[in-house]
Specification:
single chain; about 325 residues; mainly alpha; Peroxidase, domain 1; Peroxidase, domain 2; two-stranded antiparallel sheet; two-stranded antiparallel ribbon; 6 strands; about 5% strand; disordered N terminus; heme; metal ion binding; signal; EC 1.11.1.7
């Protein structure tokens, strides 16, 4: 096991080892399992962790950026690194989809892949690079670590229409969110736990403006002072492109503050606040995570493994790309 996945203390803020309940699962007909590269590229996880640690040390915002790449990859035709492909004369990239316009972290993935190609050419897929890098992104910000089942292959094509169709909208209500996650085999608890990724990172004003001005169609479940502060952000710093942190308290610390913000009616996006405020099991789970960081850490790690098992279509051509931005030939 790579050092990046070792448990260092009993505190949830230190990496927490989560064993995959299904050590072998299929993705596009390929078996995923922990230790897939133990013989073919034994230093793979260490290489990923070294690059991620170096980048996050100088650019902490790269951690949530890489984590977001994993979500956006897996929700578009499965975890196949299609989100990394550049457009060509024959293919429009997933990057062209509106939900993907603000994605970042591609250069970090490129550097990891370059080092892996030097160490073990043509072995480690770009899809596995994203899965490992997102795990390290979380642990490097103080969150849990987990064993990552590996063996994914890379898509040879993109699907920009799927990006528009399957990625959850920042304006979605609870029913819409449940449907989006259920499409990928993720249940309500997975959805609430995975939404905790918004304990780090930022969003652009164009994605939270409707909530701050009360015309998102979801009522006025918002702290007035919080709404006013975010409206000032939109006015003062670049309009639609003005960014605000999901969690003002600890925007680059992977903790459970996101859920406390929801209870305080300070969720940044409509889709964030949708998880709390209507009573019932969702409110109960948000309250549980807000009080029990270790429970959140365990459930988040388990849900990340489950999301990482989302398979591409069985008939989709795949390969191990040598360059994550383009197919091999």
């Amino acid at each position: 096991m790579a050092s990046s996945a070792k448990s260092k203390s009993s505190s949830w803020l230190a990496p927490l080892i989560i064993s995959c309940a299904l050590l072998a699962c299929t993705a596009n007909g390929h078996f995923l399992y922990v230790g897939y590269y133990d013989r073919s590229c034994p230093n793979a996880e260490d290489i990923v962790h070294f690059v991620m640690a170096s980048k996050v040390a100088t650019q902490p915002a790269m951690a949530p950026a890489v984590l977001r790449l994993f979500f956006h990859d897996c929700f578009i035709n499965g975890c196949d690194a299609s989100v990394l492909l550049d457009s060509t004369s024959h293919m429009e990239s997933d990057k062209a989809a509106e939900p993907n316009e603000s994605l970042a972290g591609f250069d970090v993935i490129d550097e990891i892949k370059s080092r892996l190609e030097s160490a073990c050419p043509g072995v480690v897929s770009c899809a596995d690079v994203i899965a490992l890098a997102s795990r390290d992104a979380v642990s490097l910000l103080g969150g849990p670590a987990w064993n990552v089942p590996l063996g994914r292959k890379d898509a040879r094509t993109a699907n920009v229409s799927a990006a528009d169709a399957y990625l959850p909208s920042p304006h979605a209500n609870l029913t819409e969110l449940l449907n989006k996650f259920a499409t990928h085999g993720l249940d309500a608890q997975d959805m609430v736990a995975l939404s905790g990724a918004h304990t780090v990172g930022t969003a652009r004003c164009q994605n939270y403006r409707a909530r701050m001005y009360g015309y998102d169609g979801e009522g006025n479940i918002i702290d007035p002072a919080f709404a006013e502060a975010r409206r000032r952000t939109c006015h003062a710093v670049g309009g639609d492109d003005a960014v605000a942190p999901f969690d003002e308290e600890s925007p680059l610390r992977f903790d459970n503050a996101y859920y406390r913000d929801l209870i305080a009616r300070r969720g940044l996006l409509t889709s964030d606040q949708a998880l709390y405020g209507c009573g019932g099991p969702f409110d109960n789970l948000v309250r549980t995570y807000s009080k029990d960081g270790e429970r959140f850490a365990r459930d988040f790690a388990t849900a990340m493994v489950k999301m990482g098992n989302i398979s591409p279509p069985s008939d989709m051509p795949v390969e191990v790309r040598l360059n994550c931005r383009r197919i091999n030939y």
